[in-house]
Write a structure and sequence with these properties.
CATH superfamily of the largest domain: Aldolase class I
Radius of gyration: 27 Å
Strand content: 15-25%
Largest sheet: 8 strands, parallel, barrel
Number of domains: 3
Helix content: 25-40%
CATH topology of the largest domain: TIM Barrel
Distance between the termini: 44 Å
Number of strands: 30
CATH architecture of the largest domain: Alpha-Beta Barrel
Structural class: alpha/beta
Strand order of the largest sheet: 3-4-6-10-11-12-13-14
Number of helices: 24
Bound molecules: adenosine-5'-diphosphate, iron/sulfur cluster
């Protein structure tokens, strides 16, 4: 990959112990909900990164033993030799594309419940496990520690046999035994593994030395270490023990993979960490302490920032999890000077939510993520068009934009009509709210791409009805007309409309996002959507100086956002802004100056003074145009259409990621054999009964 440009430094090869990385792009370990349950999907997803130019492609955490059993979550597994063939699928596929394969060995200690294996949980100290399950971990004795070291060593040997080039020791995120030993507040031992930092670091040192001894001839041994927990003096700090650990172990690993802890800090969303490169100030000391290569992350997708981090001696490798998910071809695009084509991560953590739910990974920006094997989707390639010539997409939100872009890539003459004066639909609206500005990238990437193509015509301020479609004479129509928020309070927990009195002032999220705001006085936000938007609106109105009460039938604010690692931050931020949070409340009536709320347990009614109410509950699909076209097609009355598809929120309101996916799938499936699309819905990995 020799190139001559201002980015050429990123394409220099770098030695890591006994192996050599072809460039400086390093996909650090990240979870994906594929793991040991879906080995073919896993191999294909990792191989796509290798094809996209990453020099190192890592697994997610790989449990080394049944006493680190994360069931029901499908992480990677290397319990015994039976796991080797599945892992081999990945290493072979990654090697075929010229990249190195890394495996993140892990023992999760008190973070694993061992639901499947039912073995005792291990920890440096006697402690409850850190999952909601009534079980305690037992403090490891010296025999346990010796046995654990042997498991780790054996796993490293299996990893070598499975073809891995880099083997990790993982001491980060408060999720691993090595990290639990290192941290003061989870290690109360009084033997040589507890007390002083040197003692607490002993196990990590031993794991590194064991691994080097076992596999160091062929494999590099990496240490993933969280230098700072972002908890100030109550946790490990880069200014203190974090630095001392690096100093103490400086030359032992072949590579330092450094980050911050916990996971919500490491994978911070743009809502709470808007800046790319947000970890740099924590990790920038590491390279001064070691001669070994250093990799770090921080949602890095700007090539200029990458170059400056390498030139300024902060890192040797540009680490990425999310930027590599949003755009597996990021290195190739930089190499080929197609920087404008990079699909930048928006920092929404939908990818993270999948791991938390134990389902295959998906990404808002990259609808092919997780579908490489299952649907044979490639992020940069799509079949050329069939016999049809043109297509009309109605609605320029995320579904319509993605559909139009992929249809254009297939070679159709594409017409995109949007009622508003700007493209983006809900993405443009939502990104105007506090902290969500980066979400605009979903629209920007697609708008830019459409603008580069000669076979696309975009019409703004063009609200179409069935007669317009007849006049246009385009036979293939994709309806992406979106959804609007309900104004009647019907939501997740209440299927009948809320009683709204005459003169009451009621708003929906669409009003707020359009800039129509409640007058002075007390605003009640009612969240029976329980996702993210009500919390953002509460923040927005509080920042505008409104007195805000937040009522929800849930027990916490925005419960969905636990999956995106944001819930604690959201609730803290609302409390700090003076928002009055009223959980377990169901809105019953709305009046001009007060509302009534019932306790979800007892039904007891409470009256709240408020002058306006924002109802964040459910959405109505906007499908009238689709319904009219379908109706007239059934009656042989309207325009003669070869294809009519309803996509995005107009088909099923959901996340922005769902809308993008829906638009992508519709474009891929267009002109495909219908029976193929319906019968072979997608490939499944079925356990062989042999
Ligand atoms: P999705 O998430 O499915 O893409 P959005 O609500 O974000 O849905 O976007 C739908 C877009 O469709 C909006 O920008 C809206 O203005 C536009 N739209 C709705 N009805 C029409 C119509 N009849 N003609 C053109 N555009 C429409
Ligand atoms: Fe980035 Fe969101 Fe995609 Fe995750 S899901 S990689 S955070 S755009």
């Amino acid at each position: 990959m020799a190139i001559d440009s201002k980015y050429s430094i990123l394409f220099e090869s770098v030695n890591i112990g006994p192996v050599t990385a072809r460039n400086r792009f390093y996909q650090v370990p990240h979870c994906c909900g594929l793991g040991h349950m879906r080995p073919r999907a896993h191999a294909a997803m990792r191989a796509m990164k290798a094809e996209g130019g990453w020099a190192v492609v890592s697994t997610e955490e790989a449990e080394i033993h049944p006493s680190s059993d994360l069931s029901p979550f499908p992480e990677q597994r290397i319990w015994d030799d039976h796991d080797i063939p599945a892992l081999r699928l990945m290493t072979d596929a990654v090697h075929e594309q010229g990249a190195l394969a890394a495996i993140e060995l892990v023992h999760n200690g008190s973070h694993s419940a061992n639901h499947l294996s039912r073995t005792p949980v291990l920890s440096p100290s006697e402690t409850s496990i850190d999952l909601i399950y009534p079980k305690q971990a037992r403090a490891m004795d010296k025999t346990d520690i010796r046995t654990f070291r042997q498991w780790h060593r054996d796993a490293a040997l299996r990893a070598k046999r499975a073809g891995f080039d880099i083997v990790y020791v993982y001491a980060g995120h408060r999720l691993t035994l090595a990290h639990h030993f290192l941290l003061k507040d989870s290690n109360d031992r009084t033997d040589e593994y507890g007390g002083s930092l040197e003692n607490r670091a002993r196990l990590t040192r031993e794991l590194l030395e064991d691994a080097k001894d076992a596999v160091g001839d062929k494999c590099a041994v990496a240490l993933r270490f969280a230098v700072d927990e972002m908890m100030g003096p109550s946790g490990m700090q880069a200014s203190d023990e974090g630095r001392e650990v690096v100093e103490m172990l400086a030359e032992i690993p072949d590579l330092w993979d450094v980050n911050v802890s916990d996971w919500s800090n490491d994978s911070a969303t743009t809502r709470f960490q808007p800046e790319d490169g947000y970890q740099t100030s924590y990790i920038d000391f590491v390279k001064q302490m070691t001669s070994k290569p250093v990799v770090a992350v921080g949602r890095l997708s700007s090539p200029d920032m990458m170059v400056s981090m390498v030139k300024n001696g902060i890192v040797d490798f540009v680490g990425a999890a999310r930027p590599s998910i949003a755009d597996p071809f990021l290195p190739v695009k930089i190499r080929d000077e197609r920087v404008d084509e990079i699909r930048e991560c928006i920092g929404c953590n939908i990818c993270v939510s999948c791991d938390n739910m134990g389902i295959p990974i998906r990404c808002t920006q990259n609808p092919t993520m997780g579908e490489e094997w299952r649907r044979n989707w490639h992020p940069e390639q799509i079949d050329a068009r069939g016999t049809e010539q043109d297509a009309l997409v109605v609605g320029g939100g995320p579904a319509g934009l993605e559909c139009a872009m992929q249809l254009a890539r297939r070679g159709y003459e594409v017409t995109l009509a949007e009622a508003r004066s700007e493209l983006g639909g809900r993405v443009t609206a939502e990104s105007s709210l506090p902290g969500l500005g980066a979400w605009k990238r979903v629209a920007d990437h697609r708008t830019y791409d459409l603008g580069q193509r000669g076979n696309v015509q975009v019409f703004l301020d063009s609200k179409l009805d069935a007669s317009h479609i007849g006049e246009l004479g385009i036979r293939n129509v994709f309806i992406a007309t979106g959804s609007i928020w309900r104004r009647d309070g019907v939501g997740r927990t209440c299927r009948t409309p809320v009683d709204v009195a005459d003169g009451a002032s009621v708003f929906t999220p669409d009003d707020i996002m359009a800039g129509k705001l409640p007058d002075a006085g007390h605003v009640l936000i009612y969240d029976d959507d329980q996702a993210y938007l009500a919390g953002v609106i509460a923040e927005h109105l509080a920042m505008l100086g409104k007195k805000v009460s937040f009522v929800t039938p849930a027990s916490i604010v925005s419960p969905w956002t636990r999956e995106t690692l944001e819930q604690t931050r959201i609730q803290t931020s609302l409390l700090e802004k003076g928002v009055d949070i009223i959980p377990h409340g169901q809105l019953r009536t709305v009046g001009p100056d007060h509302s009534r709320v019932a306790c979800t347990f007892t039904g007891k009614i409470r009256t709240l003074d408020c002058h306006s109410v924002v109802l964040v509950t459910e959405r109505h699909r906007v499908s009238d145009l689709f319904d009219a076209l379908r109706q007239s097609a059934n009656n042989d009355a309207g325009p003669e259409l070869a294809a009519l598809e309803l996509i995005g929120d107009a088909a099923a309101p959901g996340l922005i990621a769902d809308a993008v996916y829906s638009g992508h799938k519709a474009a891929r499936d267009f002109e495909r054999d219908k029976s193929e699309v319906e019968l072979a819905f997608y490939r499944r990995e079925i356990i062989a009964l042999s």
